[in-house]
Amino acid sequence: MPHGKTSYVCLPCRVSYKQPYDRDRERICPRCAEPMIHAGSAFAAPRRRDTAAWRALSVLLHAGVRFHKSCCGGPGFRPRGLREVRERLVYAERSGEPVAHALERYDVPWIGGPGRRRRPPRR
C-alpha cells in the first residue's frame, strides 16, 4: 500500500503541494526553483492574499513547528495570526521556554513585571 501524501510549502511563492513523503529527496518549487519546506500531512494553507497568515506560518516553519496528525486530534493548536505569534515569542523570551514549544501553546501564561497588565484576547 502506498504511503499517504504530505504537504510541502514554498514561502516566497505562497503555495503548497501535496506529494508523497520521501526523507531523502529534496522538493523543489515548480514556480521559483527554490527548496520547499516539509509542513506535514495535517497542513492547511492560508489564502495566497492573506499576508499576515503567511508571515505567521513562516515564523512557525522556521522555528521547526510542523503540522503532523497526532492520532485523531490533528496537529493541535497553531497560532494563525501575527498577534498570537508575537505573544508566544515574548513568552518564550521571558520564560526561557524553547520557541517551538511556546508557539504550540494554546494559552500563554502571563509573565510580566509589576504594574503591567495584559489585555484579554479578542474573540
Give me the secondary-structure topology:
Blueprint: E1 5-10, E2 15-20, E3 37-40, H1 51-62, H2 82-95, H3 99-103
Percent of residues in helices? 25-40%
Q: Kindly report how far apart the N and C termini lie.
A: 44 Å
Shape: globular
Instruction: Provide the spatial order of strands within the biggest beta sheet.
Output: 2-1-3
* pLDDT averaged residue by residue: 83
> Which strand-content bin applies to the residues?
5-15%
Q: Main beta sheet, described?
A: 3 strands, antiparallel
Question: Cα-atom Rg, whole angstroms?
Answer: 16 Å
H/E topology pattern? EEEHHH
Structural class: alpha+beta
Unreliable residue runs: none
Count of separate DSSP helical elements: 3
Task: Give a count of the beta strands, DSSP E runs of length 2 or more.
Answer: 3
Description:
The chain is an alpha+beta fold and 123 residues long. 25% of the residues lie in helices and 13% in strands. It is built from three helices and three strands. Strands 2-1-3 form a three-stranded antiparallel beta sheet, with no helix packed on it. The longest helix is centred in the last third of the chain and has 14 residues. It is globular, with a radius of gyration of 16 Å. The protein starts with a strand and ends in a 20-residue tail after the last helix. 17% of the residues are buried.
